[in-house]
Write a structure and sequence with these properties.
Layout (H helix, E strand, L loop, with lengths): L5 H15 L4 H7 L3 H5 L1 H19 L2 H13 L3 H15 L6 H17 L4 H15 L4 H7 L10 H24 L1 H5 L27 H8 L4 H15 L6 H40 L3 H7 L4 H11 L15 H11 L4 H18 L4 H9 L4 H27 L1
Helix pairs in contact: 1-14, 4-7, 4-9, 4-13, 4-14, 5-6, 5-7, 6-8, 6-10, 7-8, 7-19, 8-10, 8-18, 8-19, 8-20, 10-20, 12-13, 14-17, 15-17, 16-20, 17-18, 18-20
Keywords: Membrane, Transmembrane, Transmembrane helix
Protein name: Gluconate:proton symporter
């Protein structure tokens, strides 16, 4: 919030914790600054492919076509159209990932919501909370978070919780839309002028299923996310006519890949440095395991109740946000050995998702606020209560399904 840089902060803290923990230099070089980064290579591929898939959905015209179909409903039934937009957003981001994908989809969906009278604060929260809901089953984000919890794997055990958590948060989003229904119906339409030279692409309705293809392949056929995302990306090219000529296909492939990787370059570097910080934290916290064991409650349900109350500490990269100070919290909980990994995953990922859904320091949330010209305070006051409600419910779901 003060303009600091997370990458620099995590790197400085990795060094500081290495020194505080008196980790020998040869061990630090290998176990803190080398091995964790090399092991993260596979996760980086998930992020790259997820971002690429999101960019392809936009540049091939699939996302835009789905959105225009929704807009046709908007004039007569703006509340229903807003609910459909929320569902479409969640379906797209069940596989797509990255701030670039969010921006590319947002510049299509926001003008539609504004044009049917959805107030800006409601439109932004609908968009960000729907993305946050989708992140519960997004294989790209899962593979980033699982590095904090040894033994947690993508599969039936996690997905039972993931789909429930997504459904719970989407139900909260729909309730929020109904809560603001009167304001939506009476809202003043705002027409956003299209970008100069913007091309409208028409695609087959059969392409509308593509956003959920990667997740479907993972769930029903047990595919890993990498081949699932690759197949869905190739199908998007094929079904939109971008494979009719070899040169055209290669150009489209290179252009979308270049843009997608550029969108997440800064994120990738930050996450690589984060693995160093996480490893340094584990090395150092291991020396204080006895102290933390005497402080942390060992009753799992009591810990869930505490998390329900303090969940907003995930905001502003706080101690419950895994992309912030929560990396240290995860290291502390893991080092105690008091709790099973799946339980810990739910305990800390749910508050993290609260921040992903409605915190201003999440990159796509910040972009959404700036795009809508909405002040930060209004964004936080609109989204936080609903995100908190979803978080309370999902912490109970995590306790029930993962403990």
């Amino acid at each position: 919030m003060r303009g600091g840089n997370l990458t620099v902060g995590f790197f400085v803290m990795a060094i500081a914790w290495t020194v505080i923990g008196l980790v020998p230099l040869n061990i630090a070089i290998k176990e803190i600054f080398t091995d964790p980064v090399l092991k993260y290579g596979g996760t980086a591929l998930y992020i790259i492919l997820g971002s690429w898939f999101g960019r392809v959905l936009v540049d091939t015209g699939i996302a835009g076509s789905i959105s225009r179909k929704t807009q046709a409903v908007g004039g007569k039934a703006p509340v229903l159209a807003t609910i459909l937009i929320a569902i479409i957003t969640a379906l797209i981001f069940s596989s797509a990932y990255g701030v670039g994908s969010a921006i590319a989809v947002g510049v299509i969906l926001f003008p539609i919501m504004f044009s049917i009278g959805v107030p800006k604060n409601v439109a932004v929260s609908v968009f960000t909370l729907s993305i946050g809901a989708a992140m519960y089953i997004n294989p790209v984000l899962f593979n980033q978070f699982k590095v904090f919890f040894n033994g947690v794997e993508w599969g039936d055990r996690y997905l039972r919780f993931g789909f429930v958590a997504m459904a719970v948060q989407m139900l909260v989003v729909i309730v929020m839309i109904l809560f603001y229904a009167r304001k939506i119906r009476n809202g003043k339409p705002i027409i956003v002028a299209p970008s100069e030279g913007e091309e409208v692409k028409e695609v087959s309705p059969f392409t509308y299923i593509l956003p959920v293809v990667p997740v479907a392949l993972s769930v029903f056929f047990k595919w890993d996310a990498i081949p699932a995302l690759l197949l869905a990306t190739l199908l998007a090219f094929l079904m939109t006519g971008n494979m009719k000529s070899y040169k055209g296909f290669v150009k489209m492939m290179n252009d979308t890949a270049k843009t997608a990787i550029g969108d997440i370059a800064g994120l990738l570097i930050m996450l690589l440095v984060l693995t160093m910080f996480q490893s340094a934290a584990v090395h150092t916290m291991g020396q204080f395991t006895g102290v933390f064991k005497s402080i942390i409650p060992n009753n799992q349900f009591l810990l869930v109740l505490i998390m329900m109350v303090i969940a907003p500490l995930s905001y502003f990269r706080g101690p419950l946000m895994l992309y912030g100070a929560g990396a240290a919290t995860a290291a502390i909980f893991t080092a105690t050995g008091l709790f099973p990994p799946y339980y810990l995953y739910g305990l800390l990922v749910v508050p993290t998702m609260m921040a992903v859904s409605a915190d201003i320091t999440q990159s796509w949330n910040l972009w959404s606020v700036e795009y809508a010209k909405l002040d930060t305070k209004t964004f936080l006051l609109t989204g936080l209560p609903w995100a908190w409600i979803a978080t309370i419910a999902n912490l109970l779901a995590a306790y029930t399904l993962l403990a």
